[in-house]
Amino acid sequence: MKLVEELEEKSASSSRSKIDLVGVDEDLLQLKDRLTNMERKVKIIPIVGMGGIGKSTLARNLYDDAYIVSHFDYRSWAVISQVPNMREIMLSLLRGLDEKVSNELIGRGDYELREILHKRLFGRRYIVVLDDIWSTKLWDEIRMYFPDSNNGSRIVITTRESDVAEHVAGSERLHHVQLLDEVVSRDLLCQIVFGEEDCPSELQEVAAKIGSDCSGLPLAIHVIGGLLSKVERSREVWENLSTDVKASIVQSDEHFSNILSLIYSLETMFFVYESFS
């Protein structure tokens, strides 16, 4: 699944500005309410779902939302990953608003960084995002550095592992991100390819088929939509690509890996196509 992780990381890290989301308005409303409601005790909000479903993108849109920015005194974000590096995580959580780590912090020892984080958060209403947690061990090691000043602070985690989410969340409910339905998949694909323009009527049927064949995974739709935007906007070209998409996907636990393998094949084909056009 290394390919999935690399694409998810690129998707999350490239989105300091707001990312357009399709079909998740209700998710955003529910999560914003949980982040900003009147409960003063620090709350943990787990966003759970399979790889490529858009957990990090959803979290990033919340994190950069203007109301969320104004609501919290301090915001910090760290990508955890399968092989977490505690020092890098602490430095990420201590970054300034300019996304730079000061030389003074870089020179501090690991234990000092943890103390600094605790002191920086204490007494402030903070939102911390721990993106892509795989292990309960990591959470047990880091949780003590997030103080509860009874002021409405929030910790958001994203994970594909339900058992990790349940361990971290305790009694808090999990927020499961759902696969996109066929209509939303088509609309997202068309938005990526055409922007604010309408999808031509002769391409709507094949766009719906390609969107459906991406199995409701926003990451796959985003990447394939980006590639489609580079080729001729004709029914014949899109139908040929639709056949390739369908043929590459089997109904198994590896279906998303197959989609990603197809993406790299299509990128090569598009490069050849552009070279001779």
* Chain-averaged pLDDT: 81
Largest sheet: 5 strands, parallel
What is the number of helical segments per DSSP (H or I, 4+ residues)?
14
User: What proportion of the residues form beta strands (DSSP E)?
Assistant: 5-15%
Strand order of the largest sheet: 2-3-4-1-5
Q: List low-pLDDT spans.
A: 1-19, 250-254, 269-277
Total number of strands = 5
In CATH, what is the homologous superfamily of the largest domain? P-loop containing nucleotide triphosphate hydrolases
CATH class of the largest domain: Alpha Beta
Q: Report the CATH topology name of the largest domain.
A: Rossmann fold
Q: What share of the residues lie within helices?
A: 40-55%
> What gyration radius follows from the Cα positions, in whole Å?
21 Å
Distance between the termini: 35 Å
Q: What letter string, H or E per element, gives the SSE order?
A: HHEHHEHHHEHEHEHHHHH
Q: Provide the CATH architecture of the largest domain.
A: 3-Layer(aba) Sandwich
Tally of distinct domains: 2
Content-based structural category: alpha/beta
- Which descriptor suits the 3D outline? elongated
Helices and strands in order:
Blueprint: H1 2-13, H2 25-36, E1 43-48, H3 55-64, H4 66-71, E2 74-79, H5 86-93, H6 103-106, H7 110-121, E3 126-131, H8 136-142, E4 154-159, H9 162-169, E5 175-176, H10 182-194, H11 201-213, H12 218-228, H13 235-248, H14 255-276
Parallel strand pairs: 1-4, 1-5, 2-3, 3-4
Helix pairs in contact: 5-7, 10-11, 10-12, 11-13, 12-14, 13-14
